[in-house]
Design goal:
This protein is an alpha/beta fold. It has 4 helices and 6 strands. The longest helix has 18 residues. It is globular and about 45 Å long.
């Protein structure tokens, strides 16, 4: 199940991901998304529920996680998160980063483009979206 990365503090998300990467012997693939938009508890706690804000936070969490996974000092100054230079030890087994597979939601181009910037994709269809038509392979004669 993909992690709703915007629901986490980025340095804690990175630390948990690095721990899982080490425990798995470098076999972790990190599926991520923005989480469900009808999460009333999250909104009631004062956290943003707007898709645009959660997408921005997702991008920043992923940048911070990738930066901290290398075991070198890493700082970040984004729109939603700021992080003074910090070194997490031990570093992730997988280098230069833990493979990240964001959710790509068909047919939304921006989510698919985000997935293309990372290492893979968890593909899902948007509610009510029609599936892309399958093309039948033609035999060459």
């Amino acid at each position: 199940m993909p992690a709703a990365a915007p629901n986490w503090r980025p340095w804690l998300f990175a630390k948990e991901a690095i721990t899982l990467d080490r425990l798995s012997g470098g076999r972790l693939v990190l599926p991520v998304g923005i989480g469900t938009l009808d999460d009333h508890e999250f909104g009631a706690a004062g956290e943003p529920v707007e898709a645009r804000v959660r997408v921005q936070r997702l991008d920043e969490v992923l940048a911070i996680t990738a930066g901290l996974a290398g075991g070198e000092p890493f700082g970040f100054d984004g729109e939603h998160y700021r992080l003074a230079p910090l070194t997490l030890r031990p570093q992730a087994v997988q280098q230069p980063q833990i493979p990240v597979w964001p959710i790509g939601e068909w047919p939304h181009e921006r989510t698919l483009e985000r997935a293309l910037r990372w290492d893979g994709m968890v593909l899902q269809a948007a509610a009510g979206a029609s599936r892309p038509r399958r093309q039948r392979a033609r035999a060459h004669r």
